[in-house]
Structure formats: C-alpha cells, structure tokens
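Record type: monomer structure entry
Structure origin: computed from sequence
Chain ID: A
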Amino acid sequence: MIVAGYIIRRTIILAAHMVKEGKIKMPVLKGLVLAGGDSARMGVDKGLIDYHGMPQQDYLVQLLAPFTVQTYISKRSNQFAEDNQNVIRDVYTDLGPFGGILSAFQSDPECAWFVIACDFPLVNSEAIAQLIDARRDTSYAVSFLDERALMPEPWISILEPKIYPILLDYLKRGRSSLRGILVDYNTPLIRIKNKDVLLNANTPEESEKLRQIIQGR
C-alpha cells in the first residue's frame, strides 16, 4: 500500500512542477464513497460487507484518506445518522448514485470529488494514485476505461467542480447517467494497471468470488 510519505513527496513534486510550468492549481480533492444503494441483488447492504476486516464503506474511507482532505460516505435519508459527521445525505430520490454525487457537490461545489462505489472490493492505493496522477486542469473528469464495454467506468472517477453545472443541466433534461456525460464530454479514460480492481460485486456469488481472491493474496 502506498504510504503517506509517498503522498507528501508527490505533493511537493507536483507543486514545484506547477510553479515552474505556470500551471493552474488543481481544486482541492475530497472523497465520496457511494454506499446509498438498496443492494437488492446482493440482499444485504453492500457498504457493510466485510472484505478487509471492517465494513467495506469504512475500508474505502481509510483507503482514500491519504489522498483527500476529507472523505465522506453517501447514504440515503433512511440510512442517515445525524451524529455521523462523515456522511453526506442524498437529498435526491430515485436517482441512485447520481443523486449522491449531486448531493456531494451541493455540499461543496468548489472542490473535486473522488467518487467510488462500495461494490469494488479489490480497489487499492495504486489505482487511486494512478487516477489522481491523471488529473488535468482542462478536464471535467477522469475515469478508468472499462475494457469490456469500451466505455468509462463512472463509479471510480474524479469529478472536477466544473462538471457540476453539467450534472444539473442533464438532470433538468431528465437524464441521470454519469457514464453518458463522461462519453458526451469526451473525458479522459485511463487504462488501469491492475484490471482486477474493476471487478465488482453485486450478488452474493460475485461477492464470494472476490472474497476468495482477497484471501488468496
């Protein structure tokens, strides 16, 4: 796992490079763990499944922590606990993770959001660092290429603040597909170094298969 020392060194190097090249400073990055789904196919809350010795949503919060100024968990209203300071309540209904992302931007429209769904148990620090390294001040977002579909994988993405008005505009037009927006705006796609990271678990069978991969490491 990439340790905090790497992050500090990387920040210093990037800052020096930006000054030298006269580049615009990138917006502050916050994390958003998408854990507000109803988990109908899984049968249990996917955010609470234990793959790594703790609930998956907490594992992802810890994984993102060295890379972000703050990381939050996106939850539906009926999952929301008032005393949980690291939860962003999804104020939209029937929009799925799209609503969770809109709620995050509503809470802070000036930052960028590293969004990751809780059904990717194989995600690791290397993948997170790879996506962060691909950020550009000219892009609305950056995400990994889903090589099976030859499309963006929207649920592990960094969304820059300038995409927020676009999300709202699409919502007004009755569209709530983040993948569609990433395609329409031709946002950068990164080939992930470890393709297993993009394997997700939406059923008990898929969950068990990925659990065996984790235990075999």
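Annotation 1: The beta strands are 29-34, 71-75, 87-89, 112-117, 141-146, 151-159, 189-190.
Annotation 2: The two ends are 13 Å apart (CA to CA).
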